[in-house]
Design goal:
Blueprint: H1 3-6, H2 8-38, H3 45-80, H4 83-103, H5 108-118, H6 132-137, H7 140-146
Helix pairs in contact: 4-5
Length: about 150
């Protein structure tokens, strides 16, 4: 997969950001020029640069920084770091481990162990805040009942 396709969303976001920044500065120059001419002055680059840096920083603070913090902060603190996000993943993993133990026969525990090592987990699913024994014994009761 190409580098662009892998990070297409990020590249599109950067393109939108740069395009909006360039248009902001371009139309800002037109407005600065018109205002200077209305006052009988010629527009100077130093005054324009000072004004546009101030306006850009104000916009950055009020919009981009706030939105960036909300998106990144909420994603990190509420999803990645929260017990509730881990609980759903662990619950699903415990169910999959149970299905592997039900259908995997004598190699089920070995298969779960290989998957755990491959994905850097230890001892199968251990649902956050739940009994680890339930996850480890999942499917064993059904296997005993289903056995002829």
């Amino acid at each position: 997969m190409s580098h662009f396709r892998r990070y297409a969303y990020a590249w599109i976001t950067v393109a939108f950001f740069l395009g909006s920044l360039i248009l902001h500065w371009l139309f800002g120059w037109y407005a600065f020029q018109d205002e200077a001419l209305q006052h009988g002055q010629s527009p100077d680059a130093a005054g324009y640069l000072h004004e546009m840096l101030r306006d850009t920083f104000e916009n950055w603070q009020s919009e981009f920084l706030q939105l960036l913090w909300q998106v990144v902060g909420l994603a990190y603190f509420l999803y990645v770091g929260s017990p509730s996000s881990k609980e759903n993943d662990d619950r699903m993993e415990a169910k999959i481990d149970a299905l592997l133990r039900i259908t995997g026969g004598p190699d089920a525990d070995r298969l779960v162990g290989e998957l755990d090592r491959h994905y850097l987990r230890e001892h199968g699913a251990s649902p956050y805040g739940h009994d680890d024994r339930l996850a480890r014994e999942a499917g064993q009761h059904v296997r005993h009942v289903a056995a002829p």
